[in-house]
Amino acid sequence: MGRLQGYAAWKLVLILLAGVLGMGCASQAKTGAFVQVDRLESELRRGVSTKMDVQRVLGAPRGQGSAIFPTDPKLREVWFYQGMKTTVDTDGAGALRLDLQQQILLVFFEREVFDGFMWFWNGGVEEKR
Q1: Which of 9, 61, 62, 129 has fewest C-beta within 10 Å?
Q2: Domain coordinates of the chain in residue numbers?
Q3: Which long-range contacts (CB under 8 A, 24 or more apart) does 60-68 make?
Q4: What local confidence, expressed as pLDDT, does residue 95 receive?
Q5: Is the pLDDT of residue 81 over 60?
């Protein structure tokens, strides 16, 4: 039965791929919003801002948990934010281009107070003037 399920999954993938290739146009999918990280630095203060302040600036997190770092063994609460955008573009001649942009933001709290953040983005270097 596992073999039949695998065949059905591949058949579905091929049908979807044929549909995308046949369109000869771009399609886009998004999940979450891209966070304006500069707002973290301008509107929040480490050791002062609260969870309510962070939620006012960033909105509700997509997930949360906790973390301990080897250099500082204090337990910190972590909020997780993610934004992702994929674009599939075809030229109608069989060429397929997939573009993926992803942003991940981890916001750290110590005793309900903003304690810093880590931010990752695969979209290149942003130039500010």
Answers
A1: 129
A2: 24-121
A3: 61/107, 62/32, 67/106, 67/108
A4: 75
A5: yes
Contact 109, 76 (CB under 8 A): yes
Say how far apart CA 31 and CA 60 lie, in whole Å.
Answer: 14
- Reference 79, options 32, 124, 38; nearest CA is 32
DSSP conformation class of 69: E
Please enumerate in sequence order all residues whose Cβ is within 8 A of that of 12, keeping only pairs 6 or more positions apart, or say none.
none
User: What share of the chain in percent tops pLDDT 90?
Assistant: 24
Return the pLDDT at 48. Answer: 96
The model's pTM is: 0.63
Tokens representing 45 are: 């203060």
